[in-house]
Backbone:
């Protein structure tokens, strides 16, 4: 259904072409669809609904609908975008999973990176390293020392194999030379319940889902995964601050908009410009702050380069781990 303002408020080189000079500004000539490759309620869904409400106003009452097509780690929703005409009227609210990790994680990927046309990023945010209070570590180096004293005996949780928090843990182990046991759960919530209960010892969790337990004192935060500290936890260091082995460690969970390759250059430019205007609104700034995020807005070329680098980053981590899954 059309998104009301009330509802909204509640590896190949990837590049976008420029608009030819003198061409009239592109506008939708039929209802637009924003495909969310995830269930309602998550960040990808929130981003899509805020954008839909903004576009309806920006384009003077244009019809913009949000469709949730969840399943297969985001692959089903991405395929829905690629089945639609590449005429500028179907957009994907993409993210780190199906638009970067998946290309290396799945043996039988149903689409290729060059079929996606990055338009603009929306928001990125860190994962946070949290430990059970019983773990004898108040800093990340102390945790590493504890893991090295107990190789193969300390367990860490994640919301699922191949998801950003799991692969953050994989890269962490690779970088610092530790060996710990991965325990996947069906979502971040169940993993956090097990951590609070002491059934696992640590995990990397999206800041948005982990910060409540940090503030409650149920778990202890040792580091964030991004290159910089986060304003929501200003006293918690970036992992790369803490050890020389982590100097290149930089992980963001991120969200952005994609067209299918072949979309009109004018549509790419028009959507990017609308997203620039949305990024500057007080409402969007408030939303980003609420989830502990940082704006990822930039030009189509800048977002394409960001996505390309993410694909390469996770290819290296996944290949070194020897991790492969079947898409289903």
Residues:
């Amino acid at each position: 259904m059309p998104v009301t303002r009330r509802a909204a408020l509640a590896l190949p080189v990837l590049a976008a072409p420029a608009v030819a000079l003198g061409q009239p500004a592109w506008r939708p000539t039929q209802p637009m669809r924003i495909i969310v490759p995830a269930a309602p309620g998550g960040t990808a869904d929130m981003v899509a609904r805020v954008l839909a409400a903004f576009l309806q106003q920006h384009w003077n009452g244009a019809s913009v609908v949000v469709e949730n097509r969840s399943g297969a780690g985001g692959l089903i929703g991405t395929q829905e975008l690629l089945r639609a005409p590449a005429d500028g009227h179907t957009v994907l609210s993409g993210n780190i999973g199906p638009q970067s990790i998946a290309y290396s994680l799945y043996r039988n990927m149903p689409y290729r990176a060059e079929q996606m046309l990055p338009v603009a990023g929306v928001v990125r945010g860190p994962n946070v390293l949290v430990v059970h209070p019983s773990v004898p570590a108040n800093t990340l180096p102390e945790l590493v020392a504890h893991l090295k004293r107990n190789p193969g005996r300390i367990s860490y949780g994640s919301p699922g194999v191949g998801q950003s928090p799991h692969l953050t843990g994989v890269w962490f182990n690779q970088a610092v030379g530790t060996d710990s046991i991965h325990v996947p759960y069906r979502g971040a919530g169940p993993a956090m319940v097990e951590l609070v209960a002491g059934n696992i010892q640590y995990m990397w969790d999206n800041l948005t889902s982990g910060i409540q337990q940090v503030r409650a004192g149920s778990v202890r935060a040792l580091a964030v995964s991004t290159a910089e500290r986060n304003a929501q936890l200003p006293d918690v260091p970036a992992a790369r601050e803490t050890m020389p082995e982590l100097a290149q460690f930089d992980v963001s969970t991120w969200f952005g908009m994609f067209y299918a390759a072949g979309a009109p250059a004018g549509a790419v430019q028009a959507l990017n410009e609308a997203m620039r205007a949305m990024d500057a609104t007080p409402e969007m700034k408030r939303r980003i702050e609420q989830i502990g995020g940082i704006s990822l807005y930039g030009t189509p070329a800048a977002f394409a380069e960001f996505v390309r680098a993410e694909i390469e980053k996770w290819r290296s981590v996944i290949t070194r781990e020897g991790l492969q899954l079947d898409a289903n």
